[in-house]
Each structure stands twice: as structure tokens, then as C-alpha cells.
């Protein structure tokens, strides 16, 4: 029904406006008695064989929703009814910010992709926490954190520390988002020395809590093998809990979308099918080169059960979807989980 009726209708409208409309639709419909149960009967698979122990956490299944969809943690309880095993909220910054000027979200329909330059638009820490306090404990929640755009370079680490400290009681794991191409000072966030400083700072805060939370690093899909070797070394030396591979890409080669349309869109990160192979290759390189020394969450271009299995075969322990969720609809989650069960028989 989604691909035949709803998607063609949704795709008639501006992507960002329809995103907010869809949120309101899911939120309001989920208040109708019987609707959450209906969603669960349609999309959820409950099977112990799908459970995964990763980072010391138990995921009821390995299919998650990537950060950027539920930025402000307003819909995770309702989205749990669509069969996700975990949901990553954010990116959250200490203060709320409007992000980049609109229009900033674009569909590449012929490529089954999206370009975005949202710029970490979110309502800030206090708003996210007020929503997370409503957590009904249906699934694992990740907290993706970043810095405010206006923050001076000498205060970047403090932004991450503030987010980490405040969100610690409310999320199950943390993601250090240092690879988004849509925020300023991208270069410093990828500097090896700076990353060691940042990781050390949040790890120190982590130790101050009775229960420590896993910390993972989200990396770009555009890194070369030398840079990936540095990531492996960084993860091992700092004892990070894992890696998310990968964020959006700045590479636009091989797209079917006409060049003139891409030029009219302007800058932004590409997600969806165009980065499927690239993110899978990054996963495989990290897994093989490190001899599976740390867990990997695979994300990027998962639009089918086969796409997900390819990432798992490459070395991913968990899978996230975002653009695939928009293009394929909620049935994608069930299809992936069914395929995983069948592949393990």
C-alpha cells in the first residue's frame, strides 16, 4: 500500500514539509485505540533468534532507524510499533538551532537517493530530554550528539561533553557525529589528535556514572584506505565501542540525476542507493583489516533485504535504515528481519 498509494502522494510535496506531516500522521493515528496493535501485527516480528548482543546491549532485532529521522526524540515510542530493534535520535546539540536555510532536503528519485544539508537543525538538549523521559522502554535508544554551528573551535569538545552528560541517563548508547558534511569546521572534527581529545573527554565523563554507556564513532563513506586504517587504530587505542559506517557522502559521481539538477540543488550529503556499495566496502574493509575487533553498525543504501544481508555479510553487526524507509516504507523492516531469520536456518 505504501509504495502504490502513499509514496506517490507524499512525493508530490516538499520533502521537509511531508516529513513533518508524516510525523503528525503517525503521532495522531497512534493515539487511536487499536492502531498501535495493528501496526505491530503488520510490521513486527517477535523472534528470539533475531536478538543481538552488541556493545553489551540486547537488541530485540538488528534493524534500526538511523539518526536524522527522529531528531528531537518525539516519535520513537510510536516508531517502535513498525518493528525496529533500535532507534537513534538526534543529532542533538546543546542549544536548539534552526540549521541551514531552506530549501535543504531534496529527493533524487531516479537514483533512489536524497541530498540534504539540514545543518543539525534540532530543538536542543532540554527538549530532547523532556521527550526521552516519556520512553516506554520498547527498544534500545541511541543518542547521536554534535556541536552547535556557532560554537567556537576551542569549545567544540565542551558541546559534546554537555550533550553526553545530560543525555547519559536517557539513552542506551552514544554516537559521536563528527562526519556530517553539512556543518562547519568539518576538517577539525576529523583530525586525529582532536578526535583523541574528544573521545578521551567523553570517556572521562562516562566513567563518572555508575553505569557506563557504549560510545561509537560515525564515519564518512568517502574515506580512503589510509584514513580507514587510522580509524581502526583510533578505535583500538582509545577503546571505543564501535563504528557506524557510514554517514552521507559528498561524492556525486555515477548519479542518474541530471548534472544541471544537481547543480541547482547545490551542496549537501548524498544518502540512499547511491552510497550503498561505498558504505558496504567501508564495512568490509574495517571488519577484515581489524579482524572484527569491534562492532560495526552498517548504514547507507539499504533499500531491500538483500542490501541488508550484504552489509551483514561484509561484517556489520547491526543495520540502520533511513532513506530506504522513506522510499520503501515500513514493510522494509519486516522483510529484512524475515530474510535474516531465513539466512540463519
From TrEMBL:
Domain of life: Bacteria
Entries under CDD domains matching the protein: DHOD_2_like
GO terms (BP aspect): 'de novo' pyrimidine nucleobase biosynthetic process; 'de novo' UMP biosynthetic process
PROSITE patterns: DHODEHASE_2
Domain Dihydroorotate dehydrogenase catalytic as annotated: residue spans: 50-341
Catalytic activity: (S)-dihydroorotate + a quinone = orotate + a quinol
Cofactor(s) in the UniProt record: FMN
Entry binding sites for FMN: 67-71, 91, 144, 177, 218, 246, 272, 301, 322-323
Record EC number: 1.3.5.2
Subcellular location: Cell membrane; Membrane
Active site: 180 (nucleophile)
Pathway(s) this gene product operates in, as recorded in its UniProt entry: Pyrimidine metabolism; UMP biosynthesis via de novo pathway; orotate from (S)-dihydroorotate (quinone route): step 1/1
Cofactor: binding details: Binds 1 FMN per subunit.
GO cellular component, one term: plasma membrane
Chief location category: membrane
Transmembrane feature ranges: none
Protein name: Dihydroorotate dehydrogenase (quinone)
Organism: Bizionia paragorgiae
Lineage, opening ranks: Bacteria, Pseudomonadati, Bacteroidota, Flavobacteriia, Flavobacteriales
